[in-house]
Design a protein that fits this description.
By secondary structure, this protein is an alpha/beta fold. The chain is built from 8 helices and 6 strands, in the order αβαβαβααβααβαβ. β2, α3 and β3 form a beta-alpha-beta unit.
C-alpha cells in the first residue's frame, strides 16, 4: 500500500470517528460557563476572541472588568469606541497598586453585583467577567457567591471567567476549563509590555 493510500485510510477512520461524536452531541439548551485560567498569557485575549465570535453572530455581549481599572487597553478602546458591547470597567487597578483590601473588596463586590444583574437580565447572550479569578484568589469574592450568581443567570446566557488561579469549585462547575501554561514570556527577559500585543 502506498503512503498516500495509507494516509487516506487513516484519515477516513479519523473522519468517521469524529462524525460519530458530532452526531451524538446534543445542544444543552442553555448558555455555557467557560473558564480561562493558568499562569500563561492569553486568558483575556482568548475571551475577547469569543466576544468577537459572538458579535459575528449578531449576539448581544456585556463585559465586566474586575481588576484593570483605568488602564488603557486596545480591546477596551476598540469595543467602547464602536459601541459594540455593554462595557463596565469596575476594578481600581492591579491589587498591588491599590494596597487597600477593604476598597478592593468593595470594588469587586460592586463589579459582581453588576455582573449578576447582566447575567440574570436575559438581555445578553454572552457576559465576560474579565479577571474575576483574581478577585476570587484574594478572597474579595467567595466562590460560593460566584457560583450562585452563575446558577441564577438567564438560561440563554453564556459566561466567560478569566484570571489566574481559578478555584477548584469553579472549575468543577464550568462546562469548559482552559489552563494557559507559560513556557516563555518576554517580561522575564526584561521586555516591557507591548501596545497591541499585551494591552
Amino acid at each position: 500500500m502506498s503512503d498516500a493510500q495509507d494516509h487516506k485510510e487513516k484519515m477516513q477512520k479519523v473522519q468517521a470517528k469524529h462524525r460519530k461524536k458530532v452526531s451524538e452531541a446534543v445542544d444543552p439548551g442553555r448558555g455555557l460557563v467557560l473558564v480561562n485560567t493558568g499562569k500563561g498569557k492569553g486568558k483575556s485575549s482568548a475571551a475577547f476572541g469569543v466576544v468577537v465570535r459572538a458579535l459575528g453572530w449578531g449576539q448581544k455581549v456585556a463585559v465586566v472588568q474586575f481588576i484593570k481599572g483605568k488602564w488603557k487597553t486596545g480591546e477596551r478602546r476598540f469595543f467602547q469606541e464602536r459601541d459594540l458591547v455593554t462595557w463596565h470597567t469596575m476594578g481600581e487597578g492591579f491589587t498591588w497598586d491599590t494596597q487597600d483590601r477593604d476598597r478592593d473588596i468593595a470594588a469587586a463586590t460592586a463589579a459582581f453585583g453588576k455582573a449578576c444583574d447582566l447575567m440574570a437580565s436575559g438581555e445578553y447572550d454572552l457576559v465576560l467577567l474579565d479577571e474575576i479569578n483574581i478577585a476570587l484568589r484574594y478572597e474579595y469574592l467567595s466562590v460560593e457567591d460566584v457560583i450562585k450568581g452563575l446558577k441564577a443567570r438567564s438560561e440563554k446566557t453564556s459566561v466567560v471567567l478569566t484570571g489566574r488561579d481559578a478555584p477548584q469549585a469553579l472549575r468543577d462547575y464550568a462546562d469548559l476549563v482552559t489552563e494557559m501554561t507559560e513556557e516563555k514570556h518576554p517580561f522575564q527577559a526584561g521586555i516591557k509590555a507591548q501596545r497591541g500585543l499585551d494591552y
